[in-house]
Amino acid sequence: MNVDIVESFAQMVREKGVDKDVLAGIIEEIFGMLVKKKFGEDAKHDVVVNMDRGDIEIFLEREIVDVVENPNTQISIEEVNRRGNDEELEVGDDFVEKLALASFGRRLITLAKQGLNQKIREIEKDLVYNEYKELLGEIVVGDIYQIRKNDILVNHNKNELILPRNEQIPYERYKKGETVRSIVKEVKKSNSGPVIIISRADNTFLRRLFEIEIPEIYDGIIDIKAIAREPGERAKVAVESQDARIDAVGACVGMKGVRIHAIVRELNNENIDVISYSDEPAAFIQRALAPAKLKKIELNNAAKKAIVTADSDQVSLIVGRNGVNIRLAMKLTGYEIEILREEKPFEEYEEDIELIDLKDELGVDIYELLINNRYDTALEVLTAGPEKLKEIEGLDEAKINEILEIIKSQFEEEE
């Protein structure tokens, strides 16, 4: 058993890089417990472990006396002489004997094995915990081995990593056996061992992908100043070059978009806007809301608020689909953004729309009512305005406002 125990620990030294002295100390502690179980807490003992030779020696030290009062700490001179000890020992001297492991009995040996196994498991848990603590915020590559209702379990170097639903990219499909890239987001201890949470939805994952695909970022020539992201849908990344000769946005996008496309593919076709950072809030907000064109920006820097004024046909671009563009712009810049809409003069629209093309949107009854009152195009209706339209029998103020909104929205879509 001695050799087996030491060999199992020596293997941990080789494979896990655990300090030899630490492991030797654990063995000494376990076998010291064995001695105390058999001989009592006051027993004097020594455990010598030789990791290189694969040997464990256990020594018990007792005082030589005429009459034994405590056999755990004393031994009679008669017993010493009967054992034929080579040394000339007398009463009052210490007698040291080497204990055979078998002398402890099967129950105590089993107890020692259990103690060793428990210590080994604790060491392994600490090793895994420390390993992934060092990897926090870094990309790891593992294989999916189990797909649950809410979590995906990933095998990385024979360790279990958890990809929770809220750290997954929405609508991304995962298959058992597939390789997946993610960052180590959180490492925490539990009774069953370390819990390692990984993420593909965290902003840091996008940052690490930029560092991998864009050498200038990895080398520190280009800095990522801010990231705003709605995973799987859209992201905005603000970058700044430390070298005036290098265009930060161009370097990130790459020739024909090859660099950014590699990141987009990894993120399940997430749309990524790369913008040039500015420490001037107004300029930064303007760039963050691109491609919309703004007429004016009023800032309240103390309250971190901005009021942007834009033509009505630009509002849909500012807001974006389901409001994603303005939400990301606010996250990126740190400013709460309010929109003031300015109606675009009708004469500035480049093309008119025949009313018959809006028949479905307006409804047959409204369409015929307008046609019968000699309104043939959308611009004619807008130019007439609410006052003229009120003259049409059957149209009240609410219906007129609804008609005008429908027509205006068609021009905004055209833009």
For the sheet with most strands, the description reads: 5 strands, antiparallel
Query: In CATH, what is the homologous superfamily of the largest domain?
Result: K homology (KH) domain
Tell me the β content. 25-35%
User: In angstroms, what separates the terminal alpha carbons?
Assistant: 82 Å
Average per-residue pLDDT, rounded, comes to: 86
Report the order of strands and helices: HHEEEHEHEEEEEHHEEHHEHEEHHEHHHH
The CATH architecture of the largest domain = 2-Layer Sandwich
Strand order of the largest sheet: 7-6-5-8-9
User: How much helix is in the residues?
Assistant: 40-55%
Q: What topology does this entry show?
A:
Blueprint: H1 2-16, H2 20-39, E1 44-50, E2 55-65, E3 74-76, H3 77-82, E4 94-99, H4 105-134, E5 139-147, E6 151-156, E7 159-164, E8 179-188, E9 195-199, H5 203-213, H6 215-218, E10 222-230, E11 234-241, H7 248-253, H8 258-266, E12 271-276, H9 281-288, E13 296-300, E14 305-311, H10 312-319, H11 324-333, E15 336-342, H12 359-362, H13 364-372, H14 378-389, H15 397-414
Parallel strand pairs: 2-3, 11-12, 14-15
Antiparallel strand pairs: 1-2, 2-4, 5-6, 5-8, 6-7, 8-9, 10-11, 13-14
Helix pairs in contact: 1-2, 2-4, 5-8, 9-11, 10-15, 14-15
Please provide a written account of the structure.
There is one protein chain. It is built from 15 helices and 15 strands. The relative contact order is 0.05. The protein starts with a helix and ends with a helix. The strands form 4 sheets. A 5-stranded antiparallel sheet has the order 7-6-5-8-9. Strands 1, 2, 3 and 4 form a 4-stranded mixed sheet that branches. It has a 3-stranded mixed sheet with strand order 10-11-12, with helices on both faces. The chain is rod-shaped and about 130 Å long. It folds into 4 domains: 2-131, NusA, N-terminal domain (N Utilization Substance Protein A, Chain:P, domain 4), CATH 3.30.1480; 136-201, Nucleic acid-binding proteins (OB fold (Dihydrolipoamide Acetyltransferase, E2P), Beta Barrel); 209-342, GMP Synthetase, Chain A, domain 3 (2-Layer Sandwich), CATH 3.30.300; 347-414, DNA polymerase, domain 1. The longest helix has 30 residues, at 105-134. The protein has helices spanning 2-16, 20-39, 77-82, 105-134, 203-213, 215-218, 248-253, 258-266, 281-288, 312-319, 324-333, 359-362, 364-372, 378-389, 397-414, and strands at 44-50, 55-65, 74-76, 94-99, 139-147, 151-156, 159-164, 179-188, 195-199, 222-230, 234-241, 271-276, 296-300, 305-311, 336-342.
